[in-house]
Design a protein that fits this description.
The complex is a heterodimer of chains A (378) and B (251).
Chain A lengths: L2 H19 L1 H4 L8 H24 L7 H18 L3 H23 L4 H20 L3 H4 L5 E2 L7 H5 L12 E2 L2 E2 L2 H24 L1 H11 L1 H6 L4 H26 L2 E2 L6 H14 L6 H18 L2 H7 L5 H11 L7 H15 L3 H13 L15
Antiparallel strand pairs in A: 1-4, 2-3
Helix pairs in contact in A: 1-9, 3-9, 3-12, 3-13, 3-14, 4-5, 4-6, 4-12, 5-12, 9-10, 9-12, 10-12, 13-14, 14-17
Chain B lengths: L1 E12 L2 E12 L3 E5 L6 H8 L7 E6 L2 E2 L5 H7 L1 E4 L11 H14 L6 H21 L15 H13 L5 E5 L7 H16 L3 E5 L3 H7 L2 E6 L2 E6 L1 H6 L1 H6 L7
Parallel strand pairs in B: 3-8, 3-9, 6-7, 7-8
Antiparallel strand pairs in B: 1-2, 1-4, 4-5, 9-10
Helix pairs in contact in B: 3-4, 3-5, 4-5
Classes of the chains: A mainly alpha (378), B alpha/beta (251).
Bound molecules: adenosine-5'-triphosphate and magnesium ion.
The site of adenosine-5'-triphosphate has 12 residues of chain B, from strand 2 and helix 1.
């Protein structure tokens, strides 16, 4: 890699890091500058960045990645229960466990491609969900969800004399509690690291092979590549990303439930990636942030708050609008999401990143090269 | 010595007899042309060499090892590389990437985690890829996404992708179809030049100008059977060949 490429890469990651770390500042004007929501942005950002390594680079659309998210969460809570509230072993344990499951599931599902692959992954994830919900109740605590109890062994906590805690049990990183802003910064730093790794993967020869598989797998085979191990590796890596995201969800809120593995959660990460821009580096992070932001806004409304928000209108109009809008907010916010998604797919199939590209084009219309398409590094 | 030995190959598609008792010996270093009318079974024959199809009966030996029953990527690794009749390239990638990827196949085809070495290799491979793009006359478009190329350019690119692999046996299915006369001639020159590097070639071609400028030996396939084989001069005068080509004014 040339010096110039490297310096571009470093400045990209630097800008990205700054943007992420200053999120509490620049997101507060739009009412998103509080840690609980910011944590969600970055955690789902990690999830989507990892998902994009599989879907964006190889074109293999998994509909089952929520399974790894759930496995990561369960693994983390178990690490808290057995080893103690320190997050480091929890994160490591989750990544390893999710990676192992991904190796197994990938080994089976990657025998097929296209729609059959998608369906196999979906079936697998639903199996995991159902197992977690019923058969595996001793491990997952079924419907109630798994949480840490004061009576749990927490070996290291007791070893270091932190076994007895007044008040609620809090996750910590060597004494810093992972709630509020410290929790956010912990997740944010992990997002920056994993983003950088994903960027390197994309630009490495390995990433080039993955893109080639997406472009023309037949050619790849006749060019002397055994594509299976490449796909398998990409699948495992993205499974590990999902495991990390699941772990962070449990770290910021030490509760793991089966619904985290449901197919809607798998679908959500697909939406995030497509909304942001499949195959681009930044797109999935933007998509994740946007969906979580809108989810937060729209799902918080109910009929009364809606009525109050529209109170500046004449009463009759207020009533009518409330009736029209209310199915789209609150628990019905998925309706809004669906509509948003359709608009994006129809008008901007390349997602937000394509939209931004178009805007940039408007401002510099006479780019040299004219009509020929050249490669862009997203 | 024959580098490729095809013995009694039969292939049927349902009731259609696509290949019937085909025998073919390709000598090392030769440029072996296979000609014949449309639907004669020429592409089908190549498909049997690269693992795209398995013959119903018969054997295909390359350097005395069978090419049947092994995977396409293993056949490529053995040194048999193919240009397809409809260009098979990585449409979403740049020309440079298209040529670089095949260069990685030798070391990474079977996937080894050896990132460090690959990083070092990368500059070497990039240089070599640029060289190849110069050879096939596409260096000016190195950073263009391939889907915008003309059909003739795609063909030349695919040829470049095959050449960077330093094949032992290169299979060319109509390498000049869709090219202008000038491009055809430069492709002929290129193929002659790589002939000097000792790459054995099998060329399927309808353009007799190309065939007779390149071939050291010609087999004529019609309705799945080889009806004639010999030196170019012998084939030129062969009445059976004239007949197969319906008057064959071209020859
Ligand atoms: N996969 C297939 N299934 C069924 N029939 C096939 C298949 N492939 C080829 N054929 C038939 O086999 C015959 C030989 O086809 P082939 O493509 O080998 O001809 P060709 O000599 O390459 O012709 P052309 O010069 O047009 O490329 C044709 O009649 C074709 O329709
Ligand atoms: Mg053909």
């Amino acid at each position: 890699m040339s010096k110039k490429d490297l310096s571009v890469e470093y400045s990209t990651i630097l800008i990205f890091a700054l943007a992420i770390l200053t999120m509490p500042i620049w997101l507060s004007p739009i009412g998103a500058g509080y840690p609980d929501l910011l944590q969600k942005f970055v955690i789902y950002g990690i999830f989507a960045v990892g998902f994009n390594i599989l879907f964006g680079l190889t074109g293999y659309l998994s509909f089952g990645h929520a399974a790894f998210l759930g496995i990561g969460s369960y693994a983390t809570v178990w690490s808290f229960k057995l080893l103690g509230m320190n997050v480091i072993p929890a994160v490591i344990f989750s990544i390893i466990l999710a990676g192992s499951f991904a190796a197994l599931i990938g080994y089976i599902t990657l025998r097929r491609s296209g729609i059959y692959f998608s369906i196999l992954t979906l079936a697998f994830a639903q199996m995991c969900y159902n197992l977690a919900y019923s058969v595996l109740t001793p491990i997952t605590n079924g419907e109630t969800g798994l949480r840490v109890l004061k009576t749990d062994p927490r070996i290291f906590d007791h070893l270091f004399g932190r076994g007895q805690v007044d008040g609620p049990l809090l996750t910590d990183l060597f004494g810093i509690h992972m709630t509020g802003y410290p929790g956010f910064y912990f997740c944010a730093i992990l997002l920056i690291i994993t983003y950088y790794i994903a960027m390197r993967i994309k630009r490495s020869p390995f990433g080039m092979m993955l893109k080639a598989i997406k472009s023309n797998q037949t050619r790849m085979n006749y060019t002397g590549f055994n594509t299976r191990p490449y796909l398998q590796t990409a699948f495992i890596i993205s499974g590990m990303y999902a495991g990390l995201a699941g772990s962070l969800l449990a770290i910021t809120d030490p509760l793991a439930g089966a619904e985290r593995m449901q197919w809607t959660a798998s679908g959500e990460v697909v939406l995030m990636t497509i909304l942001g821009g499949v195959g681009t580096s930044l797109g999935p992070v933007l998509g994740a942030g946007l969906i979580k932001y809108f989810e937060n806004i729209f799902s918080s409304y109910n009929d009364n708050t809606l009525h109050a928000a529209l109170s500046f209108m004449p009463d009759w109009l207020n009533d009518v609008l409330t009736i029209i809008i209310s199915p789209f907010v609150g628990s019905g916010w998925h309706l809004t999401l669906g509509a948003l998604f359709m608009i994006i797919i129809i008008f901007l199939p390349g997602g937000i990143m394509e939209g931004m590209g178009r805007i940039i084009q408007i401002f510099k219309p006479n780019k040299p090269g004219g009509s020929t398409k050249t490669a862009s590094q997203g | 010595m024959a580098i490729l030995q095809v013995t009694d190959v039969n292939k049927n598609f349902g009731g259609l007899r696509a290949l019937h008792e085909v025998n073919l010996d390709v000598e090392e270093g030769a440029v072996h042309a296979i000609i014949g009318p449309n639907g004669a079974g020429k592409s089908t024959l190549l498909n049997c060499f690269v693992g795209l199809l398995t013959p119903d009966t018969g054997s295909v030996m390359f350097n005395n090892t069978s090419l049947l029953g092994i995977k396409p990527h293993e056949i490529n690794q053995a040194g048999v590389v193919r240009v397809f009749q409809t260009p098979q390239i990585f449409e979403d990638l740049t020309l440079l990437e298209n040529v670089m990827i095949p260069a990685f196949a030798k070391s990474d085809g079977a996937f080894r985690i050896n990132a460090w070495q690959r990083m070092r290799q990368r500059t070497e491979i990039r240089d070599e890829a640029e060289h190849i793009l110069e050879d096939v006359g596409l260096i000016d478009q190195r950073d263009v996404i391939c889907s915008s190329l003309s059909r003739g350019d795609k063909r030349r690119l695919e040829l470049g992708m095959c050449l960077i692999q330093h094949p032992k046996l290169l299979l060319l299915d109509e390498p000049t179809a869709g090219m202008s006369r000038a491009d055809t001639n430069s492709t002929i020159d290129l193929l002659k030049k790589i002939g000097e590097r000792g790459i054995t070639k099998i060329v399927i071609e309808h353009d007799m100008h190309v065939v007779f400028s390149l071939a050291t030996r010609i087999s004529v396939l019609a309705q799945g059977t080889i009806i004639a084989e010999g030196k170019p001069d012998d084939i030129k005068g062969n009445p059976k060949v004239q007949e197969a080509y319906l008057g064959g004014a071209e020859i």
